[in-house]
Amino acid sequence: MSRTGLGRRAALSWARGRELSPQRLWPLLREPGGLESLLGSSEVELSERLGSRERAVALLRSVDDTDTDRWIRDIERNGIQAVTSFDPDYPPLLLEIPDPPFVLFSAGNLERFRSPAVAVVGSRDASRYGRDVSARLSKELSSVGVTVVSGFALGVDEAAHEAALEGAGGTIAVLGCGIDVDYPREHTGLKAELLRRNLMISEFVPGTEPRPANFPVRNRIIAGLATGVVVVEASRRSGSLITARLAGDFGRDVFAVPGSVFSPTSVGSHELLRDGAILCRGAEDVLAEIFPTLHAPGSARADSPRVNLSSEAQELLTALRRESSSAEELAREKDWPAATVLTALFELEEAGLAASDEQGRYGPRRG
User: Angle 128-143/156-164 helices, nearest 10 degrees?
Assistant: First the structure.
């Protein structure tokens, strides 16, 4: 069996047995030898590495389990796709976080994973101002091809998804329950509309009911899928602040929208701004920071000459926004020939979007 086939079967088996969490297994998978070494270990070695949990050891070794095969066939017959972390369709940005899900259960258009993405999140108890800002921001981002990621909750999330449906970028909804569970009940119509051209995903196996503990787990996926996270409104104890904190931990840009000093739903946003989040007054602030070749409709930059970059240059620019790197490091990270990397870097320098320092490390050119 090929490594991809073996990895896919293992990931599906692990997702089915919740004892084997990504948080526990990814450190082992990233050790020398990776998947093959882990699956080839003896039961004694596995017990030591997993903390002597007999059921966990049995599940780890059950990659040929026919019950898992029947289970996934039943899921797929219900129109749900299972994308594992070993599949080419799996979103590459999500693989960069410490504990990506082994499986994303999905329904809809997987092409959304290939678009540049920004998360727009905020309060369930959003004010009219918060909903309006979320809708305008999401509509402008989607109109220039940026996919809007959010958590399918009431309030800010709902406004973000609805507005993003209108543009080319569309939207990805990340659920805190099984993908076949109708939650929130108020979103039945939105779910049907979203699935026509867009994408819904969940780490949780079909049939999983929404529980409070699921939503912080979901929030790491929202942060991991996006190059930047925009917090529109958030109270001091909002789950959106968890998403923002995780985004910062993952090296993503964090933006916050200012609100009324009298509004309790703006307290969290203002604290983010105080602690160094980037001020967001609209889509142009987000695009200028992380996608400088894209311009919001009606902005001054939208009327200026466009820079047409190759796909390789666009991908390197996204990587450089996370941290400066040498050409050699970029070639290893992307598994590209050195000539491809150097050509893309030259393209970025010529466009005024990247520059190298005295140590030969490349980063984005500011301003």
Answer: 30
Please provide the DSSP assignment of 93-160 as one string.
TGGGSSS--SEEEEEE-GGGGGS-EEEEE--TT--HHHHHHHHHHHHHHHHTTPEEEE---TTHHHHH
pTM: 0.82
If one looks up domain 311-364 in CATH, what number appears?
A: 1.10.10.10
- Taking the C-alpha atoms of residue 153 and residue 187, their distance in angstroms, rounded to an integer, is 9
pLDDT digits (tens, 9 = 90+) for 247-301: 999 999 999 999 999 999 999 999 999 999 999 999 999 999 998 878 887 776 6
- Residue 253, classed as helix, strand or coil, is strand
Q: 3-class DSSP state for residue 258?
A: coil
Angle CA(348)–CA(352)–CA(353) in degrees, nearest 5?
55
Residue ranges of domains in the chain:
3-108, 112-171+217-300, 311-364
Report helix, strand and coil shares of the chain as percent, to nearest 5: 50, 10, 40
pLDDT computed for residue 298 by the predictor:
73
Spatial separation of the C-alpha atoms in residues 246 and 229, rounded to whole Å: 10
Q: How far is CA 258 from CA 239, 286, 312, in A?
A: 18, 14, 35
pLDDT digits (tens, 9 = 90+) for 166-213: 899 999 999 999 999 999 999 999 999 999 999 999 999 999 999 999
* String of DSSP letters for 53-99: -HHHHHHHT-TT-HHHHHHHHHHHHTT-EEEETTSTTS-TTGGGSSS
Residue 349 — φ and ψ, nearest 5°? -65, -45
Coil/strand/helix, residue 171: strand
Spatial distance between the Cα atoms of 135 and 150, rounded to a whole number of angstroms: 12
Tell me: domain 112-171+217-300, CATH 3.10.20.30, correct? no
Whole-number pLDDT of residue 61 = 62
Residue 284: which residues within 8 A CB-CB, separation 6 or more? 140, 295, 296, 299, 301
